[in-house]
Amino acid sequence: MTPITEVEGRRLALSNLEKVLYPATGFTKGEVLHYYATTAQVLLPHLRDRPVSFLRYPDGPEGQVFFTKNVPPGTPEWVTTAEVPRSEGPARMVLVQDLASLMWAANLVTEFHTHQWLVDSPGEADRLVLDLDPGTPATIVECCEVALWLRERLAADGIEAHPKTAGSKGLHLLAAVRGASSEAVSEYARQLAVEAERAMPRLVVHRMTRSLRPGKVFVDWSQNAARKTTATPYTLRARTEPLVSAPVTWTEVEECGTPAQLAFQALDIAPRVQDHGDLLAPLLDTDRAGSLP
Question: What class of enzyme is it (predicted)?
């Protein structure tokens, strides 16, 4: 029998709680739900008012993995949805606005992916993202070296960058921006990637061509396009272990010597939040947003 629980006055059917989703560690669906419930205070502000795409893996990362952008069938009527523009025509997407809708979505077994704009201003970017993706044998250690260069380059334009792990093998840099379209932010990010390659040609590549990427860090600027999404801070990832896209300090980036130093699992996050709070809270402060040059 599927247990029914109440979250903020909403009744939820939470299914298959004993199901192992991460075979490498035995991490269950019940533990996934507990993780999201206990991380909601820092996660929800980064989801709120942003249309969400779900990367679903209901049988674990070794089973079927698929993206859901439209409102899933069976979505409760109390879950907030909104119509958003797309090149192929408008679509209706989910907004995760509160703990009840977060737990409903987590019960579907998802990664959360969000755009770099808010639902009331689609195509007007409020965030810039640079996805640093290492090509084997490069690792997150090399990503950290590139991130430090990009931090200084962004600071020269009055833009404050904040790092988080991708939750897989790379690193994301996020910055709050204002007064720019997604197209303008994409072009600015592309220019930064080109400059990084010129400054560190043995380490950085800005083009997506896979044959250029072994041993280098691909600075992916393309996720700033209005149609693109990026893994939300604190989301679990569909990997063999319950890895999290976790905010990190610049000191941790500076001192990273092995990939294991910046690999955080679900059980690591509560102590980190207790110690640091939300390291990405500055992204939510509009007064700290930078303007493109």
Answer: ligase
